[in-house]
Specification:
Elements: E1 3-13, E2 17-27, E3 30-42, H1 44-61, E4 66-71, H2 74-81, H3 92-102, E5 107-112, H4 119-130
Parallel strand pairs: 1-4, 4-5
Antiparallel strand pairs: 1-2, 2-3
Helix pairs in contact: 1-3
């Protein structure tokens, strides 16, 4: 698979509070992975980064050389683009890890999308939060 699209979302109830990630991976206009995972207690921004890292892990496992990333987190997108600084101590190691993983791909495109256009990933994150053990 040369190109994948990753739709990501992180959710936290309480901020910090119970948190989860939702990752939707598409290739050739088909969904190839749906990930809905709890990540413990975290802030919403930490959850967004964890979703990005999980999505990049899946893209690498699929052998992607080009990755399109969609997120409704303007903060995450602008930080990855280098337009916003990362000042939050909890985000710095996640940001650095994300940049290291992004360098493994030949082409990376990251887009901020409205929440309404990220419903698949948002639904997965909320499904994980709503799931009973």
């Amino acid at each position: 698979m040369s190109t994948v699209t990753i739709c990501i979302d992180g959710a936290s109830r309480g901020n910090p509070g119970n948190a989860a990630i939702g990752v939707l991976v598409r290739a050739d206009h088909s969904i190839v992975r749906e990930i809905a995972e709890r990540i413990g207690v975290a802030t919403n921004n930490v959850a967004e980064y964890k979703a990005l890292l999980r999505g990049l892990e899946e893209a690498a496992a699929l052998g992607a050389s080009t990755v399109h990333i969609q997120s409704d987190s303007e903060l995450l997108v602008r930080q990855i683009e280098g337009k916003y600084q990362v000042r939050n101590e909890a985000l710095i190691p996640l940001y650095r890890e994300a940049l290291a993983r992004l360098r493994r791909f030949d082409h990376v495109h990251i887009f901020h999308v409205p929440r309404t256009r990220n419903a698949g990933a948002d639904g997965l994150a909320n499904r994980a939060l709503d799931a009973k053990d």
